[in-house]
Write a structure and sequence with these properties.
single chain, 402 residues, mainly alpha, Growth Hormone, Chain: A
Amino acid sequence: MSTQSDQTASGGVGFRDLVGIYVSGFCVELAIQGTQPLSVLQLASLGASPSVIGVLLAITGMVPMFFALPLGKLVDRIGTRRLAMLGTALCALGLFGFGTSTTIWLLVVFLMFSGLGYASTSIAYQSLLAGIESRRKQLEAFGWLSTTSAIGQTLGPAIAGMIADWSSLPLVFSLAAWVAGMSVIGLLGFRRTLKTPDTARLEKGLQKSLWSNRALGVAIWTIFIGSLALSARVSFLPLYFSHAGYSATQIGVLVSVLAAASIVIRSRIGTLVEWFGRRTLMLIAFLISFPAFALIPWTQGMMAWGFSAGVIGISVGVLYPLTMAMTASAVPAEQRGFALGLRFTALRFGSTLCPLVLGVVAGVGGLAATMTVTALLCAVGAFGCGMARAGWDTGTPSVRKM
């Protein structure tokens, strides 16, 4: 009786479906996020300069950005399971190829494969969970997905760094490809395919009201500037630590500290919003990240840089779930899928511009200048939060405790 009622409230998404999603999400995050900081080192090992690395990361970051909305439409045609399995295959292929390639351009091609695969799995997972009818159960499901994925993000860099120090970077990427491929096991429990709303019809309706929707504009701008600044954590922050003489293990630990701080904040985001409100909380996140980045060139040691990494992780933990809630509450329920697709595009646009901008900065002023510019971008975000007083609390916040 309980199982039947649970499946009804969940829109037919059963326990096996949810567990499969959590397992798959963990494996994909462990593989992709664990190797992301080391991909910069792999490019550098083949002779790529910081400026070239920035350009290459920007190019590869455009792939998921441009394919986000088409993938959202594709899931309607082939179903969530097929898109997720296609995504895991692309992740595995990209990671394996990245670890075995001997030229920079082959690395770029395989990095694009893994990026497209990661976007495919993310959209497929979210599409499945969006089919849960009960709002409470849907929030619980997204919470568990976020938690298991964040655990993968936390463990991945530390494990990958230790393996790299013990053996080699190619072995790390080969093992990561195997882990990504194993995520298919979690998808075998899918019993049916869930369909999303008519994207084309909703897209047309949303475009008509897009420019007049202030709340949506605030959400999209916030995730863009936040992603533009905080994406430095996975590109030039590890590169800065590497040039300072830190080993892959030490870099992995620092990145894991950042991810762990993000997990803690995400688990309490509902309470924090109730205490401070959306606008004040986002303002605090930008304000504390400013000195965290600005002081890195002026400090040394695992303790000091670990503290900065933890503070940056707090900002990351606020930015992503808060802007998702802002986007969801800015539009009617039937338009949320397309609105969240716009948010994903803005997020990827910011993360694509980040290495491109910082690559140019590094070429002109060195790696220390990249930390200063990132801090200034955080200050711009804080200024924007201070100026945009309206559009933060429209609708029913989806991060509040229920």
